[in-house]
Fold these 2 entries.
Entry 1:
Amino acid sequence: IDDALLNYRLPTTEAAIRLLCMIAAHESGDFHYVRQRRGPALSLFQMEPPTFDDVCDYAQRRNLYIASYLPCSPWRLVFDQRFAAGMARIFFLRFPEPLPDADDLHALACYAKGYWNTYIGKATPDQYLNAYLQHFA
């Protein structure tokens, strides 16, 4: 993930890397799915096409380096995981609240739930945390 963020000249911190790893581990079903089984979400991060469009608009308005790869189909998220990681990172750049400390995994899991999954999603902070611990601890 770090390499993907650097490739697109995006801000990379240990907190951002851990957050994205946590989301990918949970949302992809332990790295099994790049397309939601019963829905529209795509990539290891399970980004939905309307969210993809919002992130593309943000990247283009801010003239982020990744914008030079846009516009493109959200299906690129399926076969280009570097691009998917970059788009997931840009998703979080849109919020003024800073990422929690990299060592506070519980806070990162709550952040993932609050911003990525939101209050209407089925995931819990514990699910994000446990997926991260299973694969990266």
Entry 2:
Amino acid sequence: MLFRSGLVHRAERVPALQGVYVFGDFCSGEISALVLDAQGTATVRRLDIHVDQPTAFVDSPRGDLVVLSRAGDVLRITGG
């Protein structure tokens, strides 16, 4: 059984992920994005980011995309 959590990133600090559903797999730690093309076809794009036991994703008040980890980490996703 896979446990996944995520959110649609609405903030502007990571423009490449704006409006995209970003999620993590608790077991593998892999962070991915679900991207829709112009025809509405969904594609999973691996982001080459690994977080031990990701449990929650939030858009911070500053516009950062933040991942919380059961391992105790609070990580900010940057780039574009």
